[in-house]
Amino acid sequence: DFCGDKDSGGSFSIITENVPCGTTGVTCSKAIKMFLGKTELKLENKDYKEIQRDVGDDVRYWNRTVGLYLVIEASNGVMLIWDKKTTVFIKLTPDYKGKLCGLCGNFDDKSNNDFTTRSGLQETSALTFGNSWKQSSMCPDVTEEIKPCDVKPHRRSWAEKECSIIRSEVFKICHSKVDPLPFYEACVHDSCSCDSGGDCECFCSAVAAYAQECTKAEACVFWRTPDICPIFCDYYN
């Protein structure tokens, strides 16, 4: 919430540090930095460490483990839920509605203005929007969107077959409530990306993202099986 005229007076920020995943150049969030007043929490390698800084207010926080997830809950109304791998959920109290900025949008429940750059301009290009929020000027701008299924065409048929679960009878009760197509396309993209050891991780995270939206729309789907992503301890289930 360090936005606009509150640029120096916010109470929290959350930053992902990206590490390449696979050989296609696509990145997965592998480390997260959470700033709460004077406290910096760095989440990586399935754990977190606390660093005290000289600036900011005192913000209390609690941590707990729920199933596979590490949950950090702070006194300022911010909650971060991390699966200790590639998935991060950020939950906030309604006081923050419309007051945020960054890659997740401004939290006003409207998606058409989420591509707002660091300088406050509304952008249509995802690349320009993303480049504006990089933390370090030493990082070069991304100039073209990587299409991992084109880079690794042998992965496409496997990804399309696996991700078809999103459009199948398994999720039928959710299809009328949450459009499956963008989640299917994201699943294929991610499943093509992770081509060196993390293939199941990326596929399962992508399907779980759709399942989470279904749960929020009151269409709870039990999609995991002993053969498909056999972890039954989803935070949202």
Automatic annotation (TrEMBL):
Pfam families: C8 (PF08742), VWD (PF00094). Residues 1-140 form the VWFD domain. PROSITE patterns: VWFD (PS51233). GO terms for cellular component: extracellular matrix; extracellular space. InterPro entries: Mucin_vWF_Thrombospondin_sf, VWF/SSPO/ZAN-like_Cys-rich_dom, VWF_type-D. Keywords: Disulfide bond, Glycoprotein. This is MUC2 protein.
